[in-house]
What we know:
By secondary structure, this protein is α/β, with parallel strands linked by helices. It has helices spanning about 40-45, 45-55, 85-95, 125-130, 145-150, 165-170, 210-225, 240, 255-265, 290-295, 305, 320-325, 330-335, 375-385, 390-395, 420-435, 445-450, 455-470, 475-490, 495-505; strands at about 5-10, 20-25, 30-35, 65-70, 105, 110, 115-120, 140, 155-160, 190, 230, 280, 295, 300, 310-315, 335-340, 345-350, 355-360, 395-400.
Amino acid sequence: MSLALVQSRALLGLQAPSVTVEVHLANGLPSFTLVGLAEVEVKEARERVRSALQNAGLEFPHNKRITVNLAPADLPKDSGRFDLPIALGILAASGQVDASKLKGYEFAGELSLSGELRAVRGALATSLALQAQQIDVQLVLPPGSAEEAALVPDARVVRARHLLDVVRAFLPPGSAAGGDADVDNDGWSRLEPQPLTAHTTGPDMADVKGQATAKRAMEIAAAGAHSLLMAGPPGSGKSMLALRFAGLLPAMTVQEALESAAIASLAGRFHPERWGQRPTGSPHHTASAVALVGGGSPPKPGEISLAHHGVLFLDELPEFPRAALEALREPLETGHITISRAAQRADFPARFQMIAAMNPCPCGFLGSTQRACRCTPDQISRYQGKLSGPLLDRIDLHVEVPALPADQLVQAPAGESTTAIRERVERARAVALARQGKTNQALQGQEIDTHVQLDDTAVKFLNTAAARLGWSARSTHRALKVARTIADLAGAPTTAVSHVAEAVQYRRVLRSPA
């Protein structure tokens, strides 16, 4: 048979649309044509496949007109993931493997010139998409990629190290090796799904001495999935606190770990040793809007998506480009980002917790009792004005981190450990999830009125505070959700005036110049 069909998958965001690799061998002037909206790296597969087949001792049909079509034709294809299915298609069309046995399998992998299989990005995203679509197939992947895909529960994954390992599993009947995928084959192995194990490694909050207010704000932020802005002079401990925040969060569920790892796999940043750990992204303040929210062609995830179910730490917040900061508005509100380009559109999840840090002024010492601020009022106003009101409105907790005197740092006792704080956070989150099925930060509309459960005194206090401070409706709702989290930490069934009063203290306004 001169026509063979091999199944594979492309990558478009976190989706994995099906791609049928059609290979036809015909008489005529010898050629190798590849069609189907393939990018440059896919078109280069012609040379890789030709060399891999020859160096593996297999027959390449030099005297045939080879046409390879990647269907559907209007779906963009990139990377070297189609090398293996193209090679198998040529072998099946020329009768060197049994084309009928390829049914029920999907293939992806880049070929080296010697025929060895190299890992491709997005294997975990592909396996997760197959699970979501309830498609029962076996994935044949190279080492590295196969281990990623096998993390998905009930996934059927086969690891193949060399092109010959795949060929031996699909030889025609009557061949020397038996032509059966279940025969002994050292390089062909089925992988079992790996269970999720909890990880507790990371820096400890006990290293941070003092800063009780900032630690309390971080505990509230972790319990309710709230965003946090810390303002203070240089060296006061803002970065030290932020880098320990991920350790306060509850352990990831299997679904959360899969979603987070799938995005990392899509970007080529997945590391098996970090499986089950909440990611902490800390982009430099020179990062562009595209680097933060994603983009490109084809669209790729940005830092906010790579921090999905984890922490995004933005140090020196006012130094980020204004366009990059304003691009964070929608993801902070909705938990996802839609990237639209002329030819494509991709949706990426972005439910991250933003921890931001900044100085109160350009020199950093506004309001400090240790050093005098040398900035003019105009410089301070311009510096703080880099953060727009709508962006600050979307940050739930604003807290000041003052510089500590030396006598509170030298020979001071260690602070409370991460483990002790995380236990309280887990209890508070469990209460919220049992009550409403989501974290307090995710409450919307009537859910706020239903689940916050303000008592009469708290209602009057909040109304007075909102009127005097000139809060918007969004600020008021966010203060309510923070108050509900404070009540959960206290084990209170309703939100009292003391909880609201503490929440109001965390909606601080940046210090104005004298």
